[in-house]
User: What shape does this take?
Amino acid sequence: MNISRYLKIGLISCICSINLSALSQSYPTRAIHIIIGFPPGGAIDTITRVMAPRMGKELGQSIVVENKGGAGGVIGMQSVAKAEPDGYTLFMGTLGNYSITPALVKELPYQVQKDFQPITQVAASAFIIFVNAQLPIKNVNELIEYAKSNPNKVYFSSSGNGGLPHMAGEMFNQIAGVQMGHVPYKGSSPSIADVIGGQVQLTFEAPAIGMPHLKSGRLRALATTDSKRLTLLPDVPTIAETLPGFVLKNWFGLSAPAGISMERVNLIQGAVKRVLQDPDVAKSFIDAGVESVGDTPAQFTNVIKLETERWQKLLASKDIKIE
Assistant: This one.
């Protein structure tokens, strides 16, 4: 028996085991920061904060959620594009951030499909038309009639120029043949606050943003932008029931600066997917009016690509521009 040969094999095996263990423990070794391009209070903020602590437990490190609002998410997204691609700075963005703004704005300080590595689409959500409860409007037909009877006097708010709430209002103008004005805000919270206060008449927003105000009677829900009625609000019709073909759905996804190792991307994606399978998380998402997704990096990359192409064509055909 060649004892020295077996000792060498055992030593090599031990070294490989140590190296693999070291690799598995090399990330993460400190807190991970998730940047959101909007102020606190919006649907994206809500779901990220539900997910973050559980994601931290899965990865063995704390997750810090940071709100860097401004320019419809561009400021927050730019900060992540410039960050080190080490997995410690991530971006949670919307369909608007990833696909609509790039289709609208030619000179962004980054290129989404070049400067970001998609990790996973986290969730998807339809919008609801929320109107001030004092407005004499109870359905989509009445909104159209009211807007036509009050030209240049009906305004909708949004969380910022170029975001999906803005686009939803512009599409409604186009399809319904009305001319509602657009008032952009720096986030969903101030947008919905001014609808409640009567400074603007309505907004297109995620269910989670308006639900507390529906219950208090300060807002009224006219219709949802989904293709089917929401389980959360079964008595609220879809816009498509009045305007066939009007279907619009937002989604939220996690990405990292381009150049991050795929080992770390897959590690993060796996942690998020496990979190989304937690029954408590699923219930929190349903209560917020969103549905879990948790797809792969490749699938999410393809979603961003296809959505960008779709919105480029759609915006060109409707001649919609940021004011």
